[in-house]
C-alpha cells in the first residue's frame, strides 16, 4: 500500500463519534500512517491529545425539528459536500472512515463519488441515521455489537465486528478483578447519568434505597452523579437513612469509581456499555427513552442478553421495582460475580487494533472474515 496517502476520519463532534475516531487515529499513527480528521465547525476534534493530526472543518448541521430545521440541514449538507469534494481532490486519501453523525456524511459521500474506499464504524446496536445514508456504497461496515438493527442479511459479507474502543484508563481496569462483595461487608453502588446526572435517577434512587432492608441499606456506600439542583435534597434523604453517600454533578476520576463499585446504575450509550464490559462490572441499565431510534435499549439488551447487565426500562423504573432489583442483586454476590464475568467475556478490549486491522486490510484489498477479525 502507498503509506504516503492519508487516511481520512470523518466524524460528528460529539464524544460518542469522536472518541473511536481518536482511538483509531492513535493506532494508525503508531503504525506509521498519516491521518486527517474531518468534522464540522462545532466539533471539538482531538485538541491537544493528537496535535499531529490535521483537522479540516466543513459545513454540516444535525437534524432539527420542523420544516425550517430540515431545510437548514439539507442546505448545510450540500455546502459541506462541495467542500468535501475539494478536500478529496487535494488530499487524495487512501480511504475514508466514517464514524457517524451528520457532519460525517459530506465527506463519506464525496469519497464514494470519487471511488475512494469507504469504511463505516457503527458504535450502537442500531445503525445510526448518518451511517444509514452511506451504508449501501460502503466497502466495509465495522460494528461494535454482534447484531446491528438496520443492517440486512445482504450486508453480511461487508460486516466485521471490531468492537468500540475505550479510553486507556478504562482499559487498565482489565487488570483490576471484580471485587465481589462479602456477606457482611460494605457494598458500593455507583449511579451515573451523563455529565450532569439524570434527573430521574436523582428522584428515584433515594426513594428506592429507602425501601431496602435495613441491614443492606446500612452496608451501602453510594456514589452518585446528580444534577446540582437535586444534590441537597438527595443528600438530606441519604443522611436521614444513615446511608454513606457521595454526590456530585461530575466525577473526574470515573475509572477509579468504576473499579471500586460492586454494581452500577446508568444509561446505556455505546461508550458506557463498552466501558462496563471491558472493566467487567455488573450493571442495571436504564436506557434513555428519547434516544434516537431507541438505540440505547438495543445496546442494553445486547449486554443483558450476554448476562452482563439487567435491563430496566425507565417506564418501569419505580422506587419499588428498582429497590426490589437492588435488594436481589446486592444480597447475591455470586450473581454479581457471574454478571461481571459475563460482561468481561463479552467485551472487545482490542477494538482499536481490530478497527485499524480492518481499515488497512480494506485498503490492501484483503478480505476480512464476516463477523469478526482473527484474534
Keywords, please?
375 residues; seven-stranded parallel beta sheet; Rossmann fold; 15% strand; six-stranded parallel beta sheet
Task: Write the SSE topology.
Layout: E1 7-10, H1 15-30, E2 35-40, E3 55-58, H2 66-91, E4 95-98, H3 105-113, E5 118-122, H4 129-134, E6 140-143, E7 159-161, H5 168-171, E8 187-191, H6 199-210, H7 214-219, E9 220-225, H8 228-241, E10 244-248, H9 254-260, E11 263-266, H10 270-279, E12 283-285, H11 295-305, E13 309-311, H12 319-330, H13 333-346, H14 351-364
Helix pairs in contact: 1-14, 2-3, 6-8, 6-12, 10-13
Please characterize this protein's 3D structure.
The protein is an alpha/beta fold. The protein folds into two domains: 7-164 and 349-364, Rossmann fold (3-Layer(aba) Sandwich), CATH 3.40.50; 170-346, Rossmann fold. The chain contains 14 helices and 13 strands. The strands form two sheets. A seven-stranded parallel sheet has the order 3-2-1-4-5-6-7, sandwiched between helices. A six-stranded parallel sheet has the order 10-9-8-11-12-13, sandwiched between helices. α1 links the parallel β1 and β2. It is elongated, with a radius of gyration of 22 Å. The model has no long low-confidence stretch (mean pLDDT 91).
Uncertain runs: none
What profile does the largest beta sheet have? 7 strands, parallel
Radius of gyration: 22 Å
Determine the CATH topology of the largest domain.
Rossmann fold
Task: State the oligomer.
Answer: single chain
| Total number of distinct structural domains | 2
What separation lies between the terminal Cα atoms? 23 Å
Overall strand count: 13
User: Into which percentage range does the β-strand content fall?
Assistant: 5-15%
- Taken in chain order, the helices and strands follow as EHEEHEHEHEEHEHHEHEHEHEHEHHH
CATH-assigned homologous superfamily of the largest domain: Glycogen Phosphorylase B
The total of helices stands at 14
Structural class: alpha/beta
Q: Roughly how much helix do the residues carry, as a percent range?
A: 40-55%
Shape: elongated
Across the major sheet, the strand order is: 3-2-1-4-5-6-7
Overall pLDDT metric: 91
CATH class of the largest domain: Alpha Beta
Supply the CATH architecture of the largest domain. Answer: 3-Layer(aba) Sandwich
Amino acid at each position: 500500500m502507498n503509506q504516503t496517502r492519508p487516511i481520512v476520519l470523518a466524524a460528528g463532534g460529539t464524544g460518542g463519534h469522536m472518541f473511536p475516531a481518536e482511538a483509531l487515529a492513535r493506532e494508525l499513527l503508531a503504525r506509521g500512517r498519516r491521518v486527517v480528521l474531518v468534522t464540522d465547525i462545532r466539533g471539538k476534534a482531538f485538541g491537544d491529545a493528537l496535535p499531529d493530526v490535521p483537522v479540516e472543518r466543513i459545513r454540516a448541521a444535525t437534524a432539527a425539528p420542523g420544516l425550517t430545521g430540515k431545510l437548514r440541514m439539507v442546505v448545510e449538507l450540500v455546502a459541506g459536500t462541495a467542500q468535501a469534494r475539494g478536500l478529496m481532490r487535494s488530499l487524495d486519501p487512501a480511504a475514508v472512515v466514517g464514524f457517524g453523525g451528520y457532519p460525517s456524511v459530506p465527506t463519506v459521500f464525496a469519497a464514494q463519488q470519487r471511488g475512494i474506499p469507504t469504511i463505516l464504524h457503527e458504535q450502537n446496536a442500531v445503525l445510526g441515521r448518518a451511517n444509514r445514508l452511506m451504508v449501501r456504497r460502503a466497502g466495509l461496515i465495522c460494528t461494535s455489537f454482534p447484531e446491528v438493527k438496520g443492517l440486512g442479511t445482504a450486508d453480511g459479507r461487508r460486516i466485521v465486528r471490531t468492537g468500540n474502543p475505550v479510553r486507556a484508563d478504562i482499559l487498565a481496569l482489565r487488570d483490576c478483578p471484580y471485587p465481589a462483595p462479602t456477606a457482611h461487608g460494605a457494598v458500593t453502588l455507583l449511579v451515573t447519568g451523563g455529565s450532569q446526572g439524570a434527573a430521574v435517577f436523582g428522584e428515584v434512587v433515594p426513594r428506592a434505597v429507602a425501601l431496602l432492608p435495613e441491614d443492606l441499606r446500612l452496608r451501602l456506600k453510594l456514589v452518585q452523579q446528580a444534577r446540582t439542583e437535586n444534590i441537597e435534597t438527595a443528600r438530606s434523604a441519604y443522611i436521614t437513612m444513615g446511608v454513606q453517600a457521595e454526590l456530585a454533578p461530575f466525577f473526574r476520576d470515573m475509572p477509579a469509581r468504576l473499579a471500586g463499585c460492586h454494581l452500577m446504575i446508568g444509561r446505556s450509550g455505546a461508550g458506557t456499555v463498552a466501558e462496563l464490559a471491558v472493566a467487567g462490572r455488573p450493571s442495571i441499565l436504564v436506557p434513555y427513552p428519547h434516544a434516537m431510534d431507541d438505540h440505547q435499549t438495543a445496546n442494553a439488551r445486547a449486554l443483558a442478553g450476554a448476562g452482563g447487565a439487567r435491563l430496566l426500562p425507565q417506564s418501569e423504573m419505580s422506587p419499588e421495582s428498582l429497590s426490589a432489583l437492588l435488594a436481589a442483586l446486592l444480597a447475591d454476590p455470586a450473581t454479581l460475580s457471574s454478571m461481571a464475568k459475563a460482561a468481561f467475556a463479552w467485551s472487545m478490549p482490542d477494538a482499536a487494533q481490530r478497527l485499524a486491522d480492518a481499515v488497512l486490510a480494506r485498503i490492501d484489498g484483503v478480505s476480512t472474515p464476516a463477523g469478526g477479525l482473527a484474534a
